[in-house]
What we know:
- The first copy, chain A, folds into two domains: 13-325, BirA Bifunctional Protein, domain 2 (2-Layer Sandwich); 335-430, Rossmann fold (3-Layer(aba) Sandwich).
- Helix content of chain A is 41%, strand content 22%.
- Chain A is built from 17 helices and 16 strands.
- In chain A, β3 (63-65) and β4 (71-74) form a beta hairpin.
- In chain A, α1 (13-32) packs antiparallel against α5 (132-148), α6 (163-172) packs antiparallel against α11 (232-250) and α7 runs antiparallel to α8.
- The interface between A and B is large, with 93 and 93 residues.
Amino acid sequence: MYDRLKGFRDFYPEEMSARREVTDTVETTAARYGFREIGTPHLERTQMYVDKSGEEIVEELYAFEDKGGRDISLTPELTPTVARMVVAKQQALSKPIKWVSTRPFWRYEQVQQGRFREFYQTNADIFGSTEPEADAEILAFAAEALTDLGLTADDFEFRVSHRDILGGLLRSFDADVDVRDAIRAVDKSEKVEREEYLGLLSDAGLSYDQAAEFADLLDRGDLDEIADFGGDDVASAVENLQNVLAAAEDFGAGDYCEVSLTTARGLDYYTGVVFECFDSTGEVSRATFGGGRYDDLIESFGGQPTPAVGVALGDATLQLLCQRAGVWPEEALSTDYYVLTVGDTRDVASRIARDLRASGNVVETDVAGRSFGAQMSYADSINAESVVIVGERDLENGEVTIKDMESGDQTTAPVDDFPGESDAPTYEDYE
Amino acid sequence: MYDRLKGFRDFYPEEMSARREVTDTVETTAARYGFREIGTPHLERTQMYVDKSGEEIVEELYAFEDKGGRDISLTPELTPTVARMVVAKQQALSKPIKWVSTRPFWRYEQVQQGRFREFYQTNADIFGSTEPEADAEILAFAAEALTDLGLTADDFEFRVSHRDILGGLLRSFDADVDVRDAIRAVDKSEKVEREEYLGLLSDAGLSYDQAAEFADLLDRGDLDEIADFGGDDVASAVENLQNVLAAAEDFGAGDYCEVSLTTARGLDYYTGVVFECFDSTGEVSRATFGGGRYDDLIESFGGQPTPAVGVALGDATLQLLCQRAGVWPEEALSTDYYVLTVGDTRDVASRIARDLRASGNVVETDVAGRSFGAQMSYADSINAESVVIVGERDLENGEVTIKDMESGDQTTAPVDDFPGESDAPTYEDYE
Lengths: 431, 431
């Protein structure tokens, strides 16, 4: 007997039906916003991640050499791949480009609740607009996907921040700051003690007093104070953040957004607005997913300068959020009809099954040569709403029996008129 | 600039919309037959393939060692994974088990037309029935998936064969035959010259005369003659094949099936009926996909003996078949509404876009701060059916303009009554 790899998951039909319902909801929301589905390779050259995604991801890569001597990796995230695809057809694509996809990714991480080595993400991105409406549309799509799943403003909030506010503030100190390291420190600030956080900021080049002042500024989160403190660049980033929030308000996402400058996002390539969705259902508020603006990535891939903003919803944390809020779909099979054969009635039973399927019904019939009782028990196990019994004796009278599985009521119907005109005949129709 | 790996594909939105339509059709057909979707890992232990899938697949594996020292492989096919999943929950699963999934697989192969290193398959399998109805349901599902795509009996045929007929015939010769090698030779028989084919059979242990007699028997394909020649085991396999074809006839797939004993399927684990779908649209008839029975695999994975039969439809050959038959969906975007803003009208335009989306429409609006002309040109590029123009001056009169993009006709509508009661208001509604 073989075992499954650690951090990988098998999804059996009941659980899968709930997952499918959630994915379909998110993808339908994206489609209504005009995000267009793309299909992307699951392997890319390792160098793409070494160059672009920052140390953290590279350490977690499933990387190896293929039989042709290429250094390749299982994709740990989508953004570098879509950047490559935008560059490859830059001239032909009309902008703004709005793309969406749902697929697996892989990172060799410590497995824990809500974190697996194989996970699924729905990524939605907009390329070709620096305008605040693009950031706001990403926020609005993400909020609407969640509300379409049944979540409310009581269940989640988007904590919105801005990389240029953080970077501008850091640069405004009289110190030789490694902005990248300092932003990583901010990203960790909610997960570590204050002293450790200040230590990380000091490691990045701030003095202890500067680190404390910076941390306090972010904690207070007073945008006017921050604009005054940081100078023109920071003031302009503050204005951009405010414009994004105003557009998000117009787009219907206002109720879900709040400014939180201690939100930073771990990945190096973010440039402007960044945000994280926080789960407010539990005692411990935690990040469910996030996104943001990455205006420099396409150019760094050799393309024309192309602004970009996007979001990635991960399956595992989204499932936890939905489950805690009580909106995770029921994990159960559903079946419209089971067509039960008794004796040598396969030809008639098959005709009925085919007619019912032609109207779009989910229909099973016997493929295992089983007894009446075994078939009835199987019909029950797949939650069949109705069972159509096609028996030799009934057929001699030109009849079949239709049984409502919830009530147990049954009646006969003329076989020549079954399923008849109705797309979904029930016990009641023939009672 | 980074390049895509050889044998891997990027799918941009137009092509992806056609692919999605095809996948949805196949999955919907499977759902109507009561196949239940599962989700499966994309990596497994390499040993599973070394033990089970035969040399050909192992040579093509994307295999490597993970950071934990495990020998792992990208999944080259689904069957070993579903066998593992059946074994893991054998007691809890009610039988027959009917599973379906669509996902990528990887093999390091020579890239050619219809063959890529990353490819997609829809796999459908039934576990727990030795009855011919199970084989027939797989044939019927596959045939109906193709006819639901618009294909007809002129476009494809299923060539149906039986491993126990081939194996029984081979064992009936007075020779020390390696049945596995001989069946591989049969699998190659259509692709190589007759002399090479007979040579491969001789390598497998038949004398040259026996090889010629065996090849002639298969070519003639007279089931009565073969049953007489091969003895009881072969006669019983012939009966099973005939029973499967009779059930397939009842299930509506009779028109698509014909006996073809030179069809063998390459994989080692097949046991009973095997079949291949042949594309009859072109001058060169070729295999599009195939399937068959594999009754021993679950037991060899450490499970209870569990019969199984399945089919796998690959994306690339299916696309070629559909394209040659002229039923490949149009590769184009579709959009219901573009809501165009002129001046400072974002709040009203957003409200209209949200109302239209709430009725299920695909709606885009400006996220890039662009001019009237640029927005109209973008609306055209996404094939918007209608454009709703929300202009400052119109709004002063309490109006918006709705433009039919095909005819170019436009008229005004009262903004307070737009979109009004209709889920999909058109130019005609306000004319």
